[in-house]
Amino acid sequence: MGKLFIKKVKYTGEKFNFESPEFTGGLNIIEGKNGNGKSTFMNLIYFGLSGKVEEFSSSNRETHREITQDKNNFVALDVLLNDTPYTFTRYINSNDITVFSSDGPGKVFPIHRSKNEKEIFSDWILASLGIEPIEVFQGTHNSIINFKDLLRLIYYNQELNPKKIYKPADSENFISDSEQIRKIIFELLVGKTYSKYYSTLAKFKEKEKEKNIAKGILEEYIASTKWTTKEEDLNLVFLNKAKQEKLDQLEKLMIYRDGLREQQQPKGQFYGQINELKSQIVLDELKIVEKNRGYNEIVEELTKLRRLRESVILETTQISKIIHSHEKLSLFSADTCPYCLREVDRKEGHCVCGQDINEEEYERFFYSSDEYTDILKSKQKSVETIDLAIAACQEQAGVLGKEIEDLNSNIEEYQNQLSNWIKDYQFSSTNQELKEADDLILSLRSEVNTLNGQIDVEQKRELLQTRFNTVNSQFESLRDSVRILEGQASADIKTKVDLFNTTYNDLMVNTLANCRSAKIAYDDYMPVIDEGVYKEASSSVAIRMMYFFTLLKLSLDESEVKYPKLLLIDTPETAGVDSENLLNALSKISDITKNHVDSEFQIILTTGVNKYPEAFSKYSRIKLTDENKLLTPSP
């Protein structure tokens, strides 16, 4: 699968600069005392790979002064991506990365996703590594897994609490650090088919929403048309057949009536009045058909408006619950410390930690009470606007209904008047036959017009039914695909977890003297040591480090594992781990890579002076001292 190597790290500014030697495959060590720049070196790499480094921002409470007070400064990473050379360039305080290749001009990628950006840096690099960006649904929130998320199991940062296996997310909150997100990160890096499974699952969720909307519109349309007509419920085939039969009868009657007229000419003026009255009846019937069509269109619009109103009311209810929860528990307060829960005098435009809040970033995880109230008011205003639109449609429907009723009354009056005229005139037997033929013609025309109205309604219904059938078929197909892929992915991840546990157990029992068994759980992929027996805090360094080592070994041993064969380790001597245990843990690098050549993987390790096994001294690439710190003044 994909492979990512760091070949060179460069920092350039008007005041300071740094350029590393060229790194190779295999192990690369940067050693030095605290304060000489080891963590800064790792931060430069992480920043160049699209990560967020708080101390590089001048608005942060604690800043890296050499960098924040520098000007025109940027980080450039020379990398090998699947053995193809690239240079990633990112300016400090910039949210863009320019990717240079040897065969073309640089291409600028934004780091954060927005509605206007079709492709971001994460999409490009994940595609290069053979990993498909997937959309994750968590309740009403959905997000896309980025390359920065996967770095949480590639970059072993200097974590003050190494019991947390994953590197903290750049924007740490209950969504970005949820168990579901952590599981997906592991599955994408280790599993064979999880990328396809999650991408198909996202399509399935969208199609399910589309299917429900199509079904709701169809059902609402059917319900609304039932009370607009009292005719027999027929489908389009039978309606067209019935219409054609009526037209055939009408054609025969017209021929029959014309023959009767030739036999006896009517009394001029009186017959002309009768014809005029009949024409008026036909004209009014045509008007009724047209107004029925307009009425049906209004009913369809009312259906859409009512569904929209329900959706907005549901959103309003959810926001009201959020505001209520906030007032009771202050769950989403931007002015509350997430650790001690005390109120903080937060400066506008800054987080409670002091960092600058970038409002242009795509994701946002909390709002203030005022903002939630403004959103609620906006939603309530939307409901009022929709209600006005519904009222307007109902009023228009009422007007059309009254006009249709008046036209029916007119037709009834014309027919009564026609009947009275005919009674006043003494017809011969031929005249009586003409009367009967005309009555039948009028009746047939009325039936044809009624059928035309039913056909219009049924055609719209058929379109909605066809739309629903198409979407439902796609939904069922995706549902079947999700079930198949889920089964394949579950079987595959179980195999991978078993392989992981074999290596992890071997590494742990050879690293910690009091460890007898080690594995990760199938449900959350987190370590379980000696079936859950408490271990001292210093053991957490080995527990976490062996977890990362096992991921690297899996990627070397199993070709289908998508872990990019790169491991970044920043100063692991934390949590009170003693020197002997640290060296023993680091020595396991030899165990996990002994059957592989250096060109297959890369480990970059920053650590204290000589705080690594003696056999690793040949891998030392940079030695930082008080006289030779990482950043040096620019010439």
Describe what you observe in this structure:
The protein has 635 residues and is α/β, with parallel strands linked by helices. The protein folds into 3 domains: 4-190 and 511-633, Rossmann fold (3-Layer(aba) Sandwich), CATH 3.40.50.300; 236-332 and 360-461, Helix Hairpins, CATH 1.10.287; 333-359, no CATH class. 52% of the residues lie in helices and 13% in strands. It contains 13 helices and 16 strands. It has helices spanning 38-48, 65-68, 121-128, 147-150, 179-190, 194-226, 236-263, 268-329, 369-424, 429-509, 539-557, 579-586, 588-593; strands at residues 4-12, 16-19, 26-32, 74-81, 84-91, 96-101, 104-110, 135-138, 141-144, 155-156, 518-520, 527-529, 566-570, 602-607, 620-624, 632-633. The strands form 4 sheets. The protein has a 7-stranded antiparallel sheet. A 5-stranded parallel sheet has the order 10-13-14-3-15, sandwiched between helices. A hairpin with a 4-residue loop joins strand 5 and strand 6 (96-101). The radius of gyration is 38 Å and the shape is elongated. Residues 359-365 have low confidence and may be disordered.
Looking at the structure, the CATH topology of the largest domain is: Rossmann fold
> How many structural domains can be distinguished in the coordinates?
3
- What spatial order of strands do you see in the largest sheet? 7-6-5-4-1-2-16
CATH hierarchy, class of the largest domain: Alpha Beta
Alpha carbon gap, first and last residue: 43 Å
Low-confidence segments? 359-365
- The CATH homologous superfamily of the largest domain is termed P-loop containing nucleotide triphosphate hydrolases
What share of the residues lie within helices?
40-55%
CATH architecture identity of the largest domain: 3-Layer(aba) Sandwich
